[in-house]
Structure prediction request, 167 residues.
Amino acid sequence: MGKLFHSLGLLFDFDKLRKELDEYDIETSREDFWSDPNKARDILSKANYNRSLLDRFASIESLYNDIDDLLKLNDESLFEELEGNIKALRKETNDFHVEVLFSEKFDDYNAILEIHSGAGGTEAMDWASMLYQMYINYANLHHFKVDILDIEMGEEAGVKSVTFKVS
Prediction:
């Protein structure tokens, strides 16, 4: 857990994010900001995204510090509260880690996945179906939208092929 928490700071240059946010705030305060509505929306979107990341990281950092303080007290009556905070920190940190991983230039784009069972009969089609289900579950867990573009079911079980878009 500690390694993941500290790696979040390494995945993002938070000083750079703060500097960009300051630049966006200066840009939005200019009189001619709305002269190009598309550019203005783009700047506002980037500013809101940076602000969201910084706020979320600050919240995680605060929860981490609270846990550290509770541990230092070494009071058994606080262990239940401590356990709840640790679970919350783990969930928030993991969710934030995934969000950070999908923060590069092309990560906003859709992904189109194709799974083909190939030659292998019923077992291959069953495996293709399980793989498809794992991708769908992952996408749903992380609030991605999934659209099935094409699916060909197997005669006995599973899928022969499936094509779907994740956005």
Observations:
- The mean pLDDT is 85.
